[in-house]
Amino acid sequence: MSLIEIILISAGLAMDAFGVSIGKGLTMPVGENGRKVTLAFLFGLFQFLMPVIGWLIGRQFIDVISEWDHWIIFGLLGYLGVAMIHEGLSDDDDEDDDKQFLGAWEMIMLSVATSLDAMAVGLTFAFLPINIWEASATIGVITFGISLVGIYLGKFMGRFVGKYADVLGGGVLILIGTKILLQHLGIIG
Question: Which regions span the lipid bilayer (predicted)?
């Protein structure tokens, strides 16, 4: 997997955190820079940890399912992509959640919730020739940066961008999963 693909996956995975960051940025008072940076840091930290956890789980089963690994990667990334697109297009309104106080526990729970898909991506990494530490660090750093931008731009960008960020991220995951499948089937080089 190339660095460009890892960066694209990182950006796709960061879209959940970006959408939440925009929503939280809408409601966080001016001057709470420490809390804003902490939230972005936690998003990045959990996006770093979850692929490693998924990779460790996947490595336990690599011998058993190595013949079908490309189908598993395609299925997982496809499922995550479709779920992100569905979430981005849904009419659910999380306005009540955004108005709640954002304490340490809430920040951790948001970080875990937005990084579960990264664990599934880490599972797919177990079947690819990839340095998990570099890939996970890239995912974490990009998520931190994108989340920080989302928090600070939240007041200006509104919910429109947050909603469609998931659609874009989901599309990226589907395309990368499709590319990996087509490469393993020998359809593309």
Answer: 6-27, 39-58, 70-89, 101-126, 132-153, 165-188
